[in-house]
Specification:
The chain is α/β, with parallel strands linked by helices. It is built from 19 helices and 13 strands. Strand 1 (about 15-20), helix 1 (about 25-35) and strand 2 (about 40-45) form a beta-alpha-beta unit.
Length: about 425
């Protein structure tokens, strides 16, 4: 199939404005950009602070190549009325706006509900904040780690009670921000579907569609039944380390070369198969271990038996033995393992991308997959303001003389 006849990605023709910084809102717009939406990232003079985060090469953040991909960068000083006017003209020709300022921050800039409605009837506006746009703590400062703590995740990632005085470890990435970003992306998509459905019905547009995502609530929504268990039984679920609280055996077991291998034989059939593999038919035959509840009560004993087997083999040898036995298992991957994984490579989840500043880089691929109309990495993270002139002229309708005047006034860069 030629490039000319290639199917368009799912969100082709959708334009989204991002007024965000750090992680949550930019992550949401990156997901939508990967699926074909045109993302106009509004940056302050100096650019998004994430441009300086993480490992650097050639004077630039390597993470930014991914975090800012599939976006157009427009640098505008939103502290100046001319900057507000310029961004307003971009919003007027867009489908959605994603922002993660403090609650009320967008209105304080001059983009309150009524102004946005006037600019673009039917606009979808996704707000991402620490605690949400309403409620007694809405104005408190928050980052993803705050959402992880209040949403209950940081408690459950702690070490099992009584094992150490070390503080609860982080997941290792800003997962609270990313989860909130995913919910914001889902909200924008739902708003687009709603708007399209109403248009097909011939229903008159009834105003902007607001999406309200809180970091704390985004994390809490993932926390399985912990609130329900507490409400019904007064049960506070406790940290269990690398085990699964509700199923056994499932743990990270040491190998002879010091690596860890996840083994998840947490069904009755898999348990029997694993016990046969490790030569512990006695554990397979015991009546009290024939169901999951009994195995949970004897998890320490079962784990000790599995560990005695796992430590006889190097990690890769152990992994191969488990795969041959058809037991769910894996090495715990490092970045190097991810980069070399044939499954990731085959599905394009690790792919080589050309970056103007860095040359060829590895990028994570696009999720979800749309085999018939796939998304694409059209560009890596842009230089700050590299699209300012093109967006202001091609979308906002400014003449080149007007753009030059805005630059002389320090409104744009």
């Amino acid at each position: 199939m030629s490039a000319r006849s290639a199917p368009l990605p799912p969100l082709d023709g959708i334009r989204i404005v991002e007024i965000g910084h750090f992680i949550a809102a930019p992550f949401a717009s990156r997901i939508l950009g990967d699926l074909g939406a045109e993302i106009i990232k509004i940056e302050p003079p100096g650019g998004d602070p994430v441009r300086s985060w993480g490992a650097q090469a050639n004077g630039a953040s390597l993470w930014w190549s991914v975090h800012g991909r599939n976006k157009r960068s427009v640098v505008v000083d939103l502290k100046q009325p001319e900057g507000i006017e310029a961004v307003g003209r971009i919003i007027a020709r867009s489908d959605a706006l994603i922002e993660n300022l403090r609650p009320g921050g967008l209105a304080r800039l001059g983009f309150d509900h009524e102004r946005l409605q006037d600019l673009r009837p039917g606009l979808i506006v996704a707000h991402v904040s620490g605690y949400g746009q309403t409620g007694p703590t809405r104005d408190r400062a928050a980052f993803g780690v705050i959402g992880e703590a209040i949403g209950g995740l940081r408690y459950l990632t702690d070490h099992p009670p009584g094992t150490t005085d070390l503080p609860p470890p982080r997941v290792g990435i800003s997962i609270g921000d990313s989860i909130a970003g995913l919910y914001a992306a889902i909200g924008v998509l739902a708003g687009l579907v709603r708007r399209n459905h109403r248009a097909l019905q011939g229903t008159q547009n009834d105003g902007i569609c607001t999406v309200d995502v809180a970091l704390t609530e985004a994390v809490l929504s993932l926390m399985e039944g912990i609130v329900t268990e507490y409400g019904a039984l007064g049960l506070v679920r406790q940290p269990v380390g690398s085990r699964i609280a509700s199923a056994a055996p499932s743990n990270a077991y040491a190998s002879a070369d010091g690596r860890r291998v996840i083994i998840a034989a947490n069904s009755d059939l898999l348990y029997q198969r694993l016990m046969k593999l490790i030569g512990r038919e006695d554990l397979a035959a015991r009546p009290e271990l024939q169901n999951n509840a009994g195995r949970l009560d004897h998890a320490d004993e079962i784990d000790a038996a599995i560990s005695a087997f796992s430590c006889r083999f190097d990690a890769r040898q152990l992994a191969a033995i488990l795969v041959e036995a058809d037991i769910p298992s894996t090495l715990i991957y490092t970045a190097a393992d991810i980069a070399d994984d044939p499954q990731f490579r085959d599905r394009g989840m690790v792919r080589e991308v050309s970056d103007p500043r860095h040359g060829t880089l590895l990028h994570p691929g696009i999720v979800p997959h749309f085999p018939e109309c796939p998304g694409a990495i059209r560009n890596t993270g842009p230089e700050a303001g590299q699209d300012t002139d093109a967006v202001l002229s091609g979308i906002a309708g400014y003449s080149m003389d007007e753009i030059d005047q805005l630059r002389k006034q320090g409104v744009i860069a």
